[in-house]
Design a protein that fits this description.
The protein is an alpha/beta fold. The chain has a domain of about 170 residues: Aldolase class I (TIM Barrel). The protein is built from ten helices and nine strands. It has a nine-stranded mixed sheet with strand order 3-1-2-4-5-6-7-8-9. The radius of gyration is 17 Å and the shape is globular. It starts with 7 loop residues before the first helix and ends in a 6-residue tail after the last helix.
C-alpha cells in the first residue's frame, strides 16, 4: 500500500510527530534485539485500549491523563537530530501506536538509517505499513493483542495487515501472554496466517511477576517452536518510566 498523494497541509503535518517522550541510556528489553543498547522515540496516540495491562496509558488514556500535557509536537528534523546525537546503535520507535503517524515516520526512519542507526518499530499490527516504510529496511516488532487485552477480536486482529507484515523482509511477531492458556490463541493465529519468528513473553511490570510468568511458560512451549522472550528493562528497573 503506497502513501496517498499529500495536500500541502498534510505534507506539513507529515513533517512532525506527536511525541510522548524520548529517552536513552537504556537497552531494548523485548524481542530479537533484547539487550542491545538503544534509544527510544515514543509516539503519542493509540487506536487500541489494552486497559488490563497497558504499561504506557499516558499515550492514549484521556480518562486518566491530560494528553495535552503528556505529548509534544516535534518536527522530524528535531527528533532525528536528537537521535543521531546519541551513541546507541539502535533506535526504537514505539508508542502508543507509531503507525498512526507513518507519513512522518518514513522521512524519520530514512534519516536515522542514513545516519547509521538500526531502526525498529513496535506496532500492534492493525495498520498496514506503507511500501515506502518497508523499503527503508526498518525492522518491525509486530505485537498483535490477544483476548487478555479485553478487546473484541475484530478490533485488535486484522488478518490482511498481519499477512502484509508477514511478507515484510524484516519483522518478528511478539505476543504478551498472561497465562499459558493464551498460547492456544496464538496457535490459532500462527496456523491461520502462517506466522513465523514468533516470540512470547509474560505480562508484568515487576521482576517477580515477569520471572514467574517465564517459568510458567516453559513447560507449555513444548514443540511449538515459539521463542520465550522477557522484559529485560522490567527485570532491571521495574516500571520506571523512561527505561
Amino acid at each position: 500500500m503506497r502513501a496517498a498523494t499529500l495536500t500541502l497541509t498534510e505534507a506539513a503535518e507529515a513533517l512532525s510527530l506527536w511525541i510522548a517522550e524520548t529517552f536513552a541510556d537504556t537497552i531494548q528489553g523485548e524481542g530479537p534485539s533484547t539487550g542491545v543498547p538503544a534509544l527510544f522515540i515514543r509516539t503519542s496516540g493509540c487506536n487500541l485500549e489494552c486497559r488490563p495491562w497497558c504499561d504506557t496509558p499516558f499515550t492514549w488514556d484521556r480518562s486518566r491523563f491530560d494528553l495535552s500535557r503528556e505529548r509534544t509536537r516535534m518536527s522530524v528534523a528535531e527528533v532525528a537530530a536528537w537521535a543521531l546525537a546519541r551513541p546507541e546503535p539502535l533506535a526504537v520507535v514505539t508508542g502508543g501506536e507509531p503507525l498512526m503517524q507513518q507519513r512522518a515516520l518514513v522521512p524519520l526512519v530514512r534519516t536515522l538509517i542514513a545516519g547509521g542507526k538500526r531502526v525498529e518499530i513496535e506496532t500492534n499490527g492493525t495498520y498496514r505499513p506503507y511500501d515506502e516504510l518497508v523499503a527503508t529496511g526498518v525492522h518491525f516488532n509486530v505485537s498483535p493483542k490477544l483476548g487478555n487485552s479485553g478487546m473484541a477480536a475484530d478490533r485488535r486482529i486484522r488478518d490482511d495487515v498481519l499477512r502484509a507484515f508477514s511478507a515484510a523482509p524484516q519483522r518478528a511477531f511478539k505476543f504478551v501472554v498472561c497465562s499459558p492458556t493464551d498460547l492456544d490463541e496464538i496457535d490459532g493465529l500462527v496456523e491461520r496466517l502462517a506466522l513465523d519468528q514468533v516470540w512470547v513473553m509474560p505480562e508484568g511490570t515487576t521482576a517477580q511477576v515477569v520471572t514467574t510468568g517465564m517459568k510458567a511458560l516453559v513447560p507449555a512451549l513444548g514443540s511449538r517452536g515459539y521463542r520465550l522472550g522477557t522484559r529485560l528493562h522490567t527485570l532491571m528497573w521495574g516500571d520506571e518510566r523512561g527505561r
